[in-house]
Every structure is written in C-alpha cells, then in structure tokens.
Specification:
Blueprint (H helix, E strand, L loop, with lengths): L3 E4 L5 H12 L3 E6 L13 E4 L5 H11 L4 E4 L5 E2 L7 H29 L2 E6 L12 H21 L4 E8 L9 E2 L8 H16 L4 H13 L6 E4 L3 H10 L2 H11 L3
Parallel strand pairs: 1-2, 1-4, 2-3, 4-6, 5-8, 6-7, 7-9
Helix pairs in contact: 1-6, 2-3, 3-4
The chain binds NADP nicotinamide-adenine-dinucleotide phosphate (NAP).
Length: 261
C-alpha cells in the first residue's frame, strides 16, 4: 500500500511542488490550504483538506479527517518583514501560531499514530534565515530557529519508537510568498528597512525553483539514515558549508552585504 503523506500548504509554492512530485512517485498525498475550494490548479489524485495553522480547531478537525499519516511535511508558513523594535507582539504571536505552534500541534496530533505503528517521518520546513538571522526578519528568523530547536530535540525523543524528524531548510526559492511588510511612517528604521525589503524581494525573485526543495524532500523520504538538517535551493548548501569555516562576525558581514546594509 502507498505511504500516506500529509503536505501542509499544498495550494502553491514549495508545498505544491512537493505534493506534485510525491504524487508522481506513487505516494498517497493529502494536501492542505486554508480554502481548498479556491485552489485553481489542483493536482490530480491529491486529496485536499482545509487547514488554518492559526486555528487549533482547524488543526484538530484535520487530524480527525486525515486518518493515518505516515509522513508529515509541515511546509505551510507565513513570513514578516518588520523592524524588530516596532513589531507589535500581537503580530509576532500571530506569526508564531502559523510558523511554530500550529506545526507543533500537528506533530503532537499525528505522532501517537506513528508511534503505535512503529514508523513515521516528520519533515519540518524551516529556512536558512533560521540559521542566518536576517535583519528586519526577526520574527520569521526566530520562529524558524525555534522550530529547528524543537525538531532536533524531538528527533532524539522519538527515534527509539521508529519515528524520525528532520528539518528541511530552503534558501531563496522563487515562489509567490508575500511577507507581511510594514514600517511605520517616519520610522528611524525606514531607509535600512526599505533596502532590506527590496533586496529580500529580489533574492526570492532570483531564487531556485520550488522543485529543488521537492526533490530534496523525496531524497529525505527515501534515505535510510537521515541527518537532522537538510539545506535546499538558493545558496543554502554553500552557506551551510561556509558557516563551518567562518566566524560569527564574518557571517554577519556576509549577511549585511547580502541585504545591502
Ligand atoms: N520561498 C522562499 O524563499 C522560502 C525560503 C525558505 C523557507 N521557506 C518556507 O517554505 C514554506 C513554503 O513557502 P512558499 O515560499 O512556498 O510560500 P507560499 O508560496 O506563500 O505558500 C505558502 C503555503 O502555506 C499556506 N499557508 C499560509 N498561511 C497559512 C496558515 N496560516 N495556515 C495554513 N496554511 C497556510 C498557503 O496556503 P493557502 O493560502 O492556500 O491557505 C500556501 O499553500 C514556508 O514554511 C516558508 O517559510 C520559503
């Protein structure tokens, strides 16, 4: 029987590319969107469900409806470009609901079934910004770092039960991801903020195709001996390699240069 894979955020971008590749490879794919009725280009054979990661009730309903899941790909996410000092805590909490607490809620809901079956895989999609914190993306960078820390901790709690958890951390990927971008009028941060927001948009626009991340997800699924972290797309693999050689100050200089500061 085909393995059942739940891909969150399968309506577009990276999640859609993962869902399409896994469907082609014969997996039974369950995809999510906040509004599945509005997905224009559905992938044939993918079963779509509603999921809003900011709503615990929506997460509980999905866990009920989905049935047994062998592989969870926690891909759906949101992003923010705000000056750290000006980000209202309500905004930050909302982002963490989508990028941290929601994905963990799904893990907690699906893990008991995986443990009972003695097998399972959780792929949490983070970001290179979780490793290389980007200025004016403090909320997004920190939520992805938090997810990475959670995943690494979880991984060594569940391996004895035959269940694996890894982080898949993309670099810049050309998707329609639209961050919540805001700087208050007249803010002292405006000139730097605008430079970084512009650079960020250009980097994403010139990024890799989502299929690069999809192929890495497939490689992870097929691997017999998985690592805790995988980089995919953009300059991510190069950056992870450079990180081993460079001091923190050198990394900071690199990030400032990349974002025009
Ligand atoms: N693009 C990049 O450069 C990049 C780089 C590193 C990491 N990532 C990460 O990769 C993942 C996918 O990003 P992407 O670029 O493919 O983004 P995208 O094109 O904007 O797609 C985001 C997906 O997440 C879903 N989603 C958004 N908010 C949600 C919420 N509150 N609850 C449930 N689903 C929600 C969307 O579905 P609906 O709108 O249909 O609900 C959509 O399918 C994210 O975790 C992102 O942080 C992206």
């Amino acid at each position: 029987m085909s393995q059942r894979v739940l891909v969150t955020g399968a309506s577009r971008g990276i999640g859609r590319a993962i869902a399409r590749l896994l469907k082609e490879k014969g997996y039974a794919v369950l995809g999510t969107s906040r509004d599945p009725g509005r997905i224009a280009d559905r992938i044939e054979g993918v079963e779509y469900f509603a999921l809003d990661l900011r709503s615990p009730a929506s997460i509980a309903a999905l866990i009920q409806k989905a049935g047994p899941v062998d592989i969870l790909i926690n891909n759906a996410g949101e992003s923010q470009v705000w000056p750290a000092a000006d980000t209202p805590l309500s905004k930050l909490r909302g982002l963490y609901e989508a990028d941290f607490f929601g994905p963990i809620d799904l893990v907690q809901g699906l893990l008991p079934g995986m443990i009972a079956r003695g097998s399972g895989l959780i792929i949490n999609v983070g970001s290179m910004t979780g490793k290389f914190a980007v200025p004016f993306q403090s909320g997004y960078s920190s939520s992805k770092s938090a997810l990475a820390g959670y995943t690494w901790s979880l991984r060594n709690e569940i391996r004895a039960f035959g269940v694996d958890a890894v982080m898949l951390e993309p670099g810049h990927i050309r998707t329609g991801i639209r961050p919540d971008v805001f700087a208050a009028a007249g803010s002292r941060f405006t000139p730097q903020f605008e430079t970084v927001a512009r650079r960020r948009a250009a980097l994403v626009g010139g990024g890799s195709e989502p299929s690069v991340v999809a192929r890495k997800a497939l490689k992870i699924i097929k691997s017999g001996r998985r690592r805790p972290f995988y980089a995919a797309g953009g300059k991510a693999p190069l950056m992870v390699f450079a990180r081993r050689l460079l001091t923190n100050r050198a990394v900071e200089r690199l990030i400032r240069k990349m974002y025009g500061l």
